[in-house]
Amino acid sequence: MQTEITELLGIQYPIIQGGMAWVAEHHLAAAVSEAGGLGLIGAANAPAEWVREQIRAAKNLTEQPFGVNIMLMSPYADEVAQVVAEEGVKVVTTGAGSPEKYMEQWKQSGIRVIPVVASVALAKRMERCGADAVVAEGCESGGHVGESTTMALVPQVVDAVQIPVIAAGGIADGRGIAAAFMLGAKAVQMGTRFIATQEAQVHESYKNQVLRAKDIDTRVTGRSTGHPVRALRNEMTKRYLELEQEGASFEELEQLTLGGLRRAVVEGDVRMGSMMAGQCAGLVREILPCSELVPQLMQEAKACMKGIRIDE
Ligand code: TUI
Fold first, then answer.
1. Tens digits of per-residue pLDDT, 179-192?
2. Nearby residues of 207 by Cβ (< 8 Å), 6 or more positions away
3. How far is the CA of 3 from the centre of ligand 1 (A)?
4. Strands 229-232 and 143-144
5. Atom number, ligand 1, closest to the C-alpha of residue 135
């Protein structure tokens, strides 16, 4: 299925894997790209040299295009911005900030730049400074979240900009993809669904928690500190929310989440780790290889769209 996004990125399916911190490393990124979507390496808070190694490792696994997601609050963001240009990365997505200061350098290096936005205002600013597309991410998503839902945000961003819009937040199956197209999106970005894949280098216990999750099993911590983050509920989110209610200091709260992603992803600490995941975790029922998952998602989406065509 060709859209403006598949053409822009040179990929087979309009499905982009989210740049999940600790989860989106080269095995997963390469597997998604090999399956016909766009895989992403999530730079998160990692040093630039780790990102360089990941890019090179992904290139060894696939000749298909893949991208790097740069988390702009990272202390290494400036260096990572340089590394993606040096390594000839085809696509960069950004999160948790505005990538304006890197835009000229990236465009000159021929990189397709796709900022993740959670508001119409930022989407318009990104279009003005030369973004090739935007990901409009609703607050159903896992990790750092904005205010608006995907259903409300995506069509408002579509109306506000000329560049293609990619929908994210709460999408985990073909129905979600079809719905995103109905809202005017030209592709989707999915994170949570890709945690439950064979290639995701994520502790089995965390994967199993995604499989077991029900609709109401995520919580947003950090609203009081201005860094709201959605994760599967566990002892950590419970204590965090209690402390927030008691008016705990930023330092006290940070103690609870420091190293939390590593604990969840690497150690499988489902009690005190930070198992970031979106509200659609309840839709995820089985672990699949990306080579099966990506085409299957697209088949489901096509079937949905066929079902509601009124000219048949
Ligand atoms: O970035 C994300 N999701 C993330 S980043 C992340 S790393 C992290 N780890 C621990 C604690 C906190 C973060 C985990 N998940 N999604 C993309 C996204 N970006 N959503 C919202 C935004 C955003 C928010 C504010 C983009 C820009 C912005 O402000 C820009 C400006 O300057 O106005």
1. 999 999 999 999 99
2. 195, 196, 200, 287
3. 27
4. antiparallel
5. 17
